[in-house]
Amino acid sequence: MADNSTVNQQVTDAVTQTNVTVLGESPAQALSTLYQMATHASGMALQNSVSNQQNLNQLNPAIISEAIKIIKG
């Protein structure tokens, strides 16, 4: 089919080489995206845990004072 075509062989070679390059780089690109997303999710989990700990640290004095009231009561 390529022999019947009027397209220059240099053009078809360039397109074929580009396609091979894209196919060859796809696994590396997919893995790097996967690693980046996993790292981002891990970072968000750590940020959420720090935020939750800070919120609990703000609530602790109120919880302790209520517990002391109940014990004295």
Q: What string, H for helix and E for strand, traces the elements in order?
A: H
Structural class: mainly alpha
Query: Treating each run of at least 4 consecutive H or I residues as one helix, how many helices?
Result: 1
Cα(first) to Cα(last) distance is: 94 Å
Largest sheet entry: none
Shape: rod-shaped
- Oligomer designation: single chain
Rg value = 31 Å
How would you sum up this structure in a few lines?
With 73 residues, the protein is an all-alpha fold. 88% of the residues lie in helices and 0% in strands.
Can you walk me through this structure?
The protein is an all-alpha fold and 73 residues long. The protein has one helix and no strands. The protein is rod-shaped, with a radius of gyration of 31 Å. The mean pLDDT is 88.
What features would you highlight for this structure?
single chain; mainly alpha
Q: What is the fold's blueprint, element by element?
A:
Blueprint (H helix, E strand, L loop, with lengths): L8 H64 L1
